[in-house]
Amino acid sequence: MRKAEQPTEAYYTLEVEPDGTIRQTRTFYNQQNEDIELARDFLVKWQKQLKKKLAKEDYKLAVKSQSLRKKEIDELRNKGVRVNGIGYCNKLLAEILEEDLMEAGNRKNRPHNSRLIYHKSNFNNKMKFL
């Protein structure tokens, strides 16, 4: 994801499942800053647009991806894998991954490789899907 006014500079990197479910959003140094909240409404709209374009095969892949994700998170939790680093002090990796999760079509939960561009001010009126 890049800012429209700085299209050559990385802003956030997204890990996305075939149906648009966002597994992770990270910026420099594997961080997630408060400014990601500014993009959430845009990301939800992007997910809705993507869902409209999915083929039958995409849905099949999404089901498989969801199942694998849940299995991987359960394994990490059962093994007690923890993260220590900037912003994380002995936190369970499973919890970090679950906090990042933003399931397509589910606004309550925390993107197919499309390029996202948005304007810093007013995401709702100035976003582009490329």
Largest sheet report: 3 strands, mixed
* Spatial strand arrangement across the major sheet: 1-6-7
Number of helices: 3
Share of residues in strands = 15-25%
Give the termini distance in whole angstroms. 11 Å
Compute the gyration radius: what is it?
Answer: 15 Å
| Helix and strand pattern | EEEHHEEHEE
**What is the arithmetic mean of pLDDT?**
79
Task: Tell how many strands the DSSP assignment holds.
Answer: 7
Tell the overall outline.
flat
Low-confidence sequence ranges: 107-130
Which structural class should the secondary elements be placed in?
alpha+beta
Helix content: 25-40%
Structural features, described:
This protein has 130 residues and is of the alpha+beta class. The protein is 38% helix and 20% strand. Strands 1-6-7 form a 3-stranded mixed beta sheet, covered by helices on one side. The longest helix is centred in the middle third of the chain and has 24 residues, at 56-79. The radius of gyration is 15 Å and the shape is flat. The termini are close together. The model is unreliable at 107-130 (pLDDT under 50).
Summarize the structure.
With 130 residues, the chain is of the alpha+beta class. It is 38% helix and 20% strand.
Task: Explain the layout of strands and helices.
Blueprint: E1 2-3, E2 13-16, E3 22-26, H1 36-52, H2 56-79, E4 82-85, E5 88-92, H3 93-100, E6 116-118, E7 127-129
Parallel strand pairs: 1-6
Antiparallel strand pairs: 2-3, 4-5, 6-7
Helix pairs in contact: 2-3
